[in-house]
TrEMBL record:
InterPro entries reported for this sequence: BrnA_antitoxin
Protein name listed in UniProt: Antitoxin
Species of origin: Candidatus Methylopumilus turicensis
Recorded superkingdom: Bacteria
A Pfam family it matches: BrnA_antitoxin
């Protein structure tokens, strides 16, 4: 291992902006169970499926039709 390294010609990671940010979110048990079941069918981790679904909603500007009673 060198004592010093020269990073003067180093480039920033072009993918750094796309890194995932860890958050805490509270979801009901039914929602988590649904995504876990789907994840076993398709072989993708359930947290990745939730992220893909939310990303699709954001990309298509999908809004919920909420009516409070």
């Amino acid at each position: 291992m060198r004592e010093e390294y020269d990073f003067s010609k180093a480039k920033k990671n072009p993918y750094a902006a796309k890194l995932k940010k860890p958050i805490t979110i509270r979801l009901d048990e039914d929602s988590v169970s649904y995504f876990k079941a789907v994840s076993e069918e398709v072989g993708i981790p359930y947290q990745s499926l939730i992220n893909l679904y939310l990303r699709d909603c954001a990309a298509t500007h999908r809004k919920l039709n909420l009516s409070w009673k």
